[in-house]
Design goal:
This protein is an all-alpha fold. Helix content is 79%, strand content 0%.
């Protein structure tokens, strides 16, 4: 009985196999990092919510009393400096209130820079769904164009550039069959995965260094000592509020007895 002939793989076929293994490995790592990023965002958002409910609203109240005190002092001792200080305190109190109560700040007029407009026009020329050659191409273009629109509306030039690069560098953009086309598609998939992985690592690093993350870490360390950081902060702010109320009442008395 003759043995079956085993065909040796061509060098390009071996390269495709190696690239497939590389792609599988980086996709596994990417999935883990994506999950880590989502988890960290969720944990920080939950802690920030607790902070705002327990401490943030008290800081908003404290800043309100500070603004009232500054306004009273400006009336008792009128000057350009005291007026400016009162206005600054009032604006700070407004911002703190909005942050503590989750309210959006006043809408700002959006003016796109010439560079952002140029990039958007370039994206529209290359990505627009009307340029599609088949239903699959139209679906892909529609998805990328929607992302480009959101980036433009947010004034995010960096995201707009990334979207255009991903569209043109995506595996779907490579046409044709055969080992060569497949190899190019895999190489592009690896490149995009590495880029995304790098972005995630940067986001994770930034989140871990954020103020809310540092505060959460401090809360966790204090919890090991059976202490509640947020409760202690809330108590300290309440004490400041009581002092501010007393100072406000004292200034009111001064104003009542101020000569006309």
């Amino acid at each position: 009985m003759s043995r079956p002939i085993i065909r040796r793989l061509k060098p390009e076929e071996e390269e495709v196999l190696r690239k497939r293994e590389e792609l599988a490995a980086i996709r596994a790592t990417l999935a883990e990092r994506e999950l880590e990023l989502v988890d960290l965002r969720s944990q920080l958002a939950a802690f920030e919510g607790r902070y705002l409910r327990q401490v943030g609203i008290l800081y908003a109240e404290l800043d309100e009393w500070k603004a009232r005190i500054s306004e009273l002092e400006a009336r008792l001792h009128p000057s350009a400096a005291s007026t400016a200080q009162a206005e600054e305190a009032r604006e700070h109190a407004r911002q703190t209130y909005e942050e503590a109560h989750g309210e959006a700040s006043e809408a700002k007029d959006f003016t796109a820079s010439p560079e952002l407009k140029r990039m958007y026009r370039e994206a529209a020329k290359r990505i627009h769904p009307d340029l599609a050659t088949d239903p699959g191409d139209r679906e892909r273009r529609t998805r990328f164009m929607a992302e480009a629109n959101r980036a433009y509306e947010a004034g995010d030039a960096e995201s707009l550039k990334r979207i255009l690069d991903e569209y043109e560098g995506g595996a779907e953009a490579v046409k044709g069959e055969g080992i060569g086309a497949e190899l190019i598609r895999i190489i592009r998939q690896i490149s995009l995965a590495k880029t995304r992985l790098s972005t995630i690592e940067q986001e994770l690093a930034a989140l871990r260094k954020s103020e809310i993350a540092l505060l959460r870490r401090q809360a966790e360390e204090m919890q090991q000592e059976d202490r509640d950081l947020l409760a202690e902060l809330a108590t300290a702010v309440r004490e400041q509020i009581e002092l501010a109320k007393k100072k406000h009442e004292s200034l009111l008395e001064q104003e009542r007895h101020k000569p006309a």
